[in-house]
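Hi there,

I know you've been waiting on this one. I reran it after we fixed the sequence typo, so this is the corrected version. Both the input and the resulting structure follow.
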Amino acid sequence: MDVPQFQALIADLTRQLDGRAIDANLADWLNAHYGAGSPGYDALTNACHTGVAEGWLCNREGGGIRYGRVIKPTPDTHGFSVDVVDMADLAGPHHVHPNGEIDLIMPITPGATFDGHPAGWCVYGPGTAHRPTVANGRALVLYLLPEGAIEFTRSA
């Protein structure tokens, strides 16, 4: 697995997301079709673990969070950027999702959660905001951001 192979894997998923509303119905669809234990979930999880081990994912660190944007939004990924973070029992910086955010939660510690969600997907609609929080251990979280849009704030 390398960045071009990872991008091809992501592009297969984002092709299916292209044009869909970023909302709770999308979270339901993702968990039904790419939920924890499915072949698609396993392929993405394995790719992320490989990328972290090889150093091309989560290659930056700050505030106890390993992170990195591995793919900028392009037509190949249907306008989605891809960031992956590695967090353990902490809250990240508050931010707003101007166009929404689609999150794949991959616990490393069994039972770890992201914003209270277990392994699988959660979706934040356009204009939402949060302080991303991993609890009960360590997890990788993959963020798909439409047009790469994210606004970090000073609010909590």
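Quick highlight: The chain has one domain: 3-152.

Best,
R. S.
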